[in-house]
Amino acid sequence: MSTRADDDDQQRFALGFLFALIALVVMTVLGVVVYKYGLSHAPKVPPAATAPAAPTVAVVTETVAVVIPDGASIRVDQGVVNFYFATGSADIAPGAAEALALVIQGVQNGRKALVSGFHDTTGDPAKNEELAKQRAQTVRDVLTGLGVPTEKVALEKPAVTTGSGNNAEARRVEVKLVD
User: Fold this and answer.
1) Which of 6, 11, 110, 178 pairs with 157 at a CA distance of 20 to 30 A?
2) Distances in Å between the alpha carbon of 165 and those of 22, 75, 84, 171?
3) What is the CATH number that goes with domain 4-44+51-178?
């Protein structure tokens, strides 16, 4: 005869096992995303010109930047994650998972991730807007690939899609937490 406590223990074990399995799948997907969008698109740099290793994002309230030679980079500044892109590209710089740790934590605490794409002023404005949209969708896909539910990620087209700053700073996707 089984007691209710034994049934509860079995359910807790099963749920724990299920969460561990989900975590394993998420980490595998993350590894594939980082490999596909990080290592496979990284420029071949001679050993003498190799930049120092990317910093680990331990305290995300500080400003942290990861710069990639081809122009793609990620910057976390006061809780906003900015993905900067090379001209004409929607490829994300390596380090996305680490930079999005604050956003993932915020979503787990009941908030939503708001993703907005911006573009620079060079070239065809219509193509730039479409590229800004593709970049925002790529960042959204990375978030969902890291286990964030799709209903917790909102794409928002800003009123003015031309980004501020120089052209390299203007080509960006911002990820903010909202209530």
Assistant:
1) 110
2) 40, 14, 12, 9
3) 3.30.1330.60
